[in-house]
């Protein structure tokens, strides 16, 4: 039997052949999808994921995809683009409703209002709609049962808006968008979360090219950077350039650099400030306050302890508020325990926060006292300074040893290297120079010399404003040391001589000695051995025998290196052994820095004296200590020395192993000595050209 049957169908007896039952010709098939974006770019991974989910609509359960992401990330655009693309796969209807979760002048739509609208869409007469949400939701489930229907629930604020609107049987696909993470949809209904992140640089550039055509590549790259990968901002830029017509894109880029949020205003409602504000209004007041204060942090990310210090809260309370911000997708926990938001949200939060010196002082105090504790874990003995008092509500970090401190410094590296400039720019000059001072050991021993120089440059203006000669000496010397590591000899020498002048003004013999030591190291690296020795001797003389043995030990080892470079090995060994004895006394208090440096020097001296087995033992001891300390330059030097001894002992394979490991470190550090170690490796393959000088 074939044909079209209207009304009820009753099978009296057996029926042979195919029977096709169609909906009545007057049945309503809703087509409610609003128009999508005229041009849609990117998001291929997310589109593919939706396709995968849609392919499961024939299973036993309804498929729910919850698309979430921060304001302006393009959730609605993605949902509508995909919904239009697959609309024909849902021949029984496509339903759409804006749940008004984040609108400035209207309350969120109730589930009752939404379900009545859906029943209207299916042509259910008003007098046939039952009273009460539960009964209406049941009628809606009956209407879509056995049908292929697509539901787009846009701009949802909370999962409670969604629960009554879900179909009860397979065949339907529900696409939910929200600024909030709707975790209870996952827990109760097995929804699949799909988080939208910022566009990549390539995706953002493609979006602008699609809408505007070709742009000058440098200008395009600048526009992409200034829009922070946020589709809302990119769309506004495209609209402004399209509206301006003949106005160059470079002009808009300049306007964005000057005042980003102002430049991204199209009208009263369509601009980042307005759209971000809807999310902030939905927060509890404590969470909204934390959001504002996070704008005062220089970024690029923050952990819960620093956030707690910034807000003046216990860590547990701050963690709870961060979870609220996470649910609202106003921050992103991109690594366990580390939070961030994009630049436009940061600017918005900073505007809302205004000036808050108390919050800045708490935050900077947390980092300063934590960095100082970390520095003491790396190098126990430092010339002491008085730190600004820490706010009683703030708890700084503590560390169990060098490895613990190194892990923390590494995780906070991007924050710490920008913090000195931030402190200087916000008027906290004392915090600025002390932060730079406390970061020296980490930045130096881990080979972050570009950052080492950048951090100390950022502190120069602060110490000059403070007009404290001792602080000026220490910061100028730190910058000179960093530049010496980078082999920028002339500028390094200039800063180190300025540091020496400042120390002479203070009358502080210890600081003057440290300036001589830094100049001695610089001249040694430039192979100006006589000048290096002069400064080393001056440093030793400024540390008389009754002075602190540790500081005298550093000066003695510097002198030992200079004597060794001049081939005066007996004098060199005398000085460096005296240095080792001083540092081993300190090593009993868990600081092996000076001991490791002295052993490196002694290994070189013993090699020069032809004492090969003692040179090997000293080198291996130095290597063990430098690895324990995480000192990469010291590790590379010890490996080079061990390779030198292996070569002298006619063990080329062992020498190769040591030198190749040293090369791997030196390549990463971009040290000037890299070429010398590579030359030694090359000589292993061409022994006829090997150098006859021991240790070179």
TrEMBL record:
GO MF term (any one): ADP binding
* Entry-linked Pfam families: TPR_12
Q: Which domain of life is it from?
A: Bacteria
Report the SMART domains cross-referenced here.
TPR
InterPro entries in UniProt: P-loop_NTPase (IPR027417), TPR-like_helical_dom_sf (IPR011990), TPR_rpt (IPR019734)
- List the PANTHER family: HTH-TYPE TRANSCRIPTIONAL REGULATOR RV0890C-RELATED (PTHR47691:SF3), REGULATOR-RELATED (PTHR47691)
The identity of this protein, by name, is Uncharacterized protein
Where is the organism placed in the taxonomic lineage, from the top? Answer: Bacteria, Bacillati, Actinomycetota, Actinomycetes, Pseudonocardiales
């Amino acid at each position: 039997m074939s044909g079209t049957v209207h009304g009820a169908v009753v099978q009296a007896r057996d029926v042979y052949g195919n029977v096709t039952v169609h909906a009545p010709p007057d049945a309503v098939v809703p087509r409610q999808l609003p128009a999508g974006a005229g041009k849609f770019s990117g998001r291929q991974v997310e589109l593919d994921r939706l396709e995968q989910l849609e392919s499961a609509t024939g299973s036993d359960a309804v498929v729910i995809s919850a698309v979430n992401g921060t304001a302006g990330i393009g959730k609605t655009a993605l949902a509508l683009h995909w919904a239009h693309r697959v609309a024909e796969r849902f021949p029984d209807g496509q339903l759409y409703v804006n749940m008004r979760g984040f609108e400035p002048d209207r309350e969120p739509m109730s589930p009752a209002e939404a379900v009545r609208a859906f029943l209207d869409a299916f042509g259910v007469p008003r007098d046939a709609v039952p009273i009460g949400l539960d009964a209406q939701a049941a009628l809606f489930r009956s209407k879509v049962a056995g049908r292929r229907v697509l539901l787009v629930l846009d701009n949802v604020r909370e999962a409670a808006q969604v629960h009554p609107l879900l179909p009860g049987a397979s065949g339907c696909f529900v696409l939910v968008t929200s600024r909030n993470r709707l975790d209870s949809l996952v827990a109760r209904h097995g929804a699949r979360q799909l988080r939208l992140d910022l566009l990549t640089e390539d995706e953002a550039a493609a979006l602008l090219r699609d809408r505007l055509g070709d742009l000058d590549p440098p200008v395009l790259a600048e526009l992409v950077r200034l829009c922070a990968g946020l589709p809302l901002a990119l769309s506004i830029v495209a609209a402004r350039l399209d509206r301006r017509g003949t106005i160059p894109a470079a002009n808009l880029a300049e306007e964005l650099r000057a005042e980003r949020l102002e430049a991204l205003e199209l009208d009263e409602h369509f601009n980042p400030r307005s759209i971000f504000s809807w999310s902030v209004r939905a927060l509890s007041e404590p969470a909204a306050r934390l959001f504002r204060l996070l704008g005062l942090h220089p970024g690029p990310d923050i952990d819960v302890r620093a956030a707690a210090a910034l807000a003046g809260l216990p860590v547990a309370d701050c963690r709870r508020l961060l979870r609220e911000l996470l649910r609202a997708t106003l921050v992103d926990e991109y690594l366990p325990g580390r939070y961030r938001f994009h630049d436009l949200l940061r600017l918005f939060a900073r505007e809302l926060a205004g000036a808050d010196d108390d919050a800045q002082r708490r935050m900077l105090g947390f980092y300063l006292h934590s960095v100082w504790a970390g520095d003491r874990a790396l190098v126990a003995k430092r010339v002491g300074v008085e730190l600004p008092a820490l706010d009683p509500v703030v708890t700084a970090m503590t560390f169990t040893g060098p490895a613990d401190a190194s892990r923390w410094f590494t995780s906070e590296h991007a924050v710490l290297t920008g913090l000195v400039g931030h402190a200087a720019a916000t008027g906290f000059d004392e915090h600025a120079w002390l932060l730079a001072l406390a970061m020296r050991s980490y930045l130096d021993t881990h080979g972050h010399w570009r950052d080492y120089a950048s951090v100390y440059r950022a502190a120069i203006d602060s110490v000059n404003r403070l007009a404290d000669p001792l602080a000026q000496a220490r910061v100028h010397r730190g910058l000179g040391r960093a530049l010496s590591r980078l082999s920028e000899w002339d500028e390094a020498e200039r800063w180190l001589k300025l540091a020496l002048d400042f120390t002479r003004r203070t009358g502080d013999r210890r600081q003057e000695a440290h300036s001589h030591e830094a100049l001695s190291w610089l001249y040694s690296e430039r192979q100006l051995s006589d000048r290096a020795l002069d400064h080393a001797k001056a440093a030793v003389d400024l540390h008389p025998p009754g002075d602190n043995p540790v500081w005298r030990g550093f000066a003695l080892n510097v002198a030992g290196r200079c004597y060794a470079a001049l081939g005066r090995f007996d004098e060199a060994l005398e000085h460096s052994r005296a240095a080792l004895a001083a540092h081993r006394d300190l090593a009993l208090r868990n600081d092996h820095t000076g001991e490791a440096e002295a052993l490196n020097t002694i290994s070189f001296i013993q090699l020069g004296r032809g004492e090969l087995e003692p040179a090997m033992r000293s080198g291996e001891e130095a290597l063990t200590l430098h690895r324990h300390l995480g000192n990469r330059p010291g590790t590379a030097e010890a490996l080079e020395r061990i390779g030198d001894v292996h070569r002298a002992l006619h063990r080329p394979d062992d020498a190769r192993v040591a030198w190749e490991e040293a090369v791997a470190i030196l390549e990463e550090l971009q040290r000037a000595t890299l070429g010398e170690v590579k030359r030694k490796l090359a000589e292993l393959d061409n022994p006829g050209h090997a150098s006859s000088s021991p240790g070179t």
